[in-house]
Structures are given as structure tokens and as C-alpha cells.
Amino acid sequence: MDFQQLADVAEKWCSNTPFELIATEDTERRMDFYADPGVSFYVLCPDNGCGDNFHVWSESEDCLPFLQLAQDYISSCGKKTLHEVLEKVFKSFRPLLGLPDADDDAFEEYSADVEEEEPEADHPQMGVSQQ
After folding, report:
1. Which residues pair with 53 in a beta bridge?
2. Strand, helix or coil at 62?
3. pLDDT (tens digit per residue) in 58-84
4. Residue 53, helix vs strand vs coil
5. How far apart are CA 88 and CA 85, in angstroms?
6. Contact criterion met (CB below 8 Å) for 67 and 90
7. Is 122 helix (H, G, I), strand (E, B) or coil?
8. Is CB count within 10 Å lower at the N or C end of the chain?
9. Phi, psi (rounded to 5 degrees) for 48
10. Can you tell me the distance from the alpha carbon of 130 to that of 26, in angstroms, rounded to the nearest whole number?
11. Rounded to whole angstroms, how far apart are CA atoms 48 and 102?
């Protein structure tokens, strides 16, 4: 995929997240992202001909530790798409962005538990007499 196509993918991804694509550098194949409050990172995109993976990094000391999850994901087996990498970065940064952890499986389990507990027909409603 050429770099402009990757930049288009990144722009589309940004439209669904708090991040903005603030800079692209075609010769380095680098994209810089930023979100308030001061969360920043960049992605280096592999060349088409290379077997390299994407690379994510942050020049912010506060952000860097949160990228470990995304870096581990990228270095695991298999080719990754830019969208998959960006999604993993977003998940990694959720605590810094003040968003709840979006572990999909845990959320679904929690939602299912809540839905099961809601109907409480066994308990009398307040103010309704039992005759």
C-alpha cells in the first residue's frame, strides 16, 4: 500500500477517535498523532518491498510506557494492517485519555450480567401494596 493510502486509512481512523493526524512525512513513511491531554505517538510504516513491521513510538516520556501493549502486538507473528495497529494503540492509551478500558470480552460479560439482574419481579416495588 502506498503511503498516501496509509495516510487516508489513518485519517479515517482518526474520525472515530480523539486523535488527530497532525503530520505525515512521506520520505520517512512517518505519521504523527496527537490527542488532548498531551497524548502523542508516531507510526513508521513499512515499505512495500520490505518484510518490516509497523513501528510505534512516542517522544513523550508519559506516553511511552502505554505503548508496550501495541509494540508487543506488532512484534507478534503475522502481518498487521495500519488500522489494526492504530486500534491497539488507541486501546493502550485509553487510561491516559480518561476513557474506560475497552476490553470487549469483559464488557460483554459485564453487560450480560447487568441485563440478567435487571428484572426483579420477585421484589415488591416501593409504594405498591402486596394484596
Report:
1. none
2. coil
3. 999 999 999 998 999 999 878 889 999
4. coil
5. 5
6. no
7. coil
8. C
9. -55, -40
10. 74
11. 32
